[in-house]
Amino acid sequence: MLENAILVTGAGRRIGHHLALRLHQDGYNVLAHYRTHTTEIQALQDLGIATIQASLSDSQAILLFVDALKEHCNSFRALLHNASSFEPTSEDLAVAAQQYEQFFNVHMMAPYLINQGLSSLLVGENNNPADIVHITDINVENPTPRFDIYGTTKAGLHNMTLALAKKFAPLIKVNAVAPGPVLFTEQHSAVVRQHMLDETLLAKEGGAEPVYLAVKSLLDNPFITGASIPVDGGRRLSKR
Question: What's the pTM value of the predicted model, to 2 decimals?
Fold first, then answer.
């Protein structure tokens, strides 16, 4: 059984993998969640990092996940909600309805039920509060119509940050980190990448490390709650 664990959801690739790895390197007890086993998860396992598989597809699966988490850990230092679904909204209304249900479950239902289910096991260090960190998106402030379902469910997660910061105070801090163009994907063409960089004030792809640095700053600071840190190179100010 782990003590003072930091749960990282969606650790099977990209930012989530980097967060789990860097937390481990900084000496935290990490429990890395994944939906599908990947080479990145295998790399975490090879380092001795505890992992747990679970679907976040519906409330029943999420509640089973909460029960499994209680069996793996006696206490948690922090909950880091990184799991995410991302794709443009379908023009087919029936498909869009399925997308909305999926995005809602991953971005809102899962964080809510996990936070509620584990709040009594969250314990801070040195008489400071424990932490919940939601990974949101700059679409919360400046939504992109093509990704309206994605953006509105991430906005719901942002609002949850504010509500739970009030609800869980003073024993638990609840904050958000809102990334922008930190890691391009293979789906981003050279034209799309350049367009995104042109809209980014710092004119570069940020990488995953700045996201980790923002998360770590929240873990280290005992007097911030209900805040959102943008990690976007300034793109939220200029993107159209």
Answer: 0.94
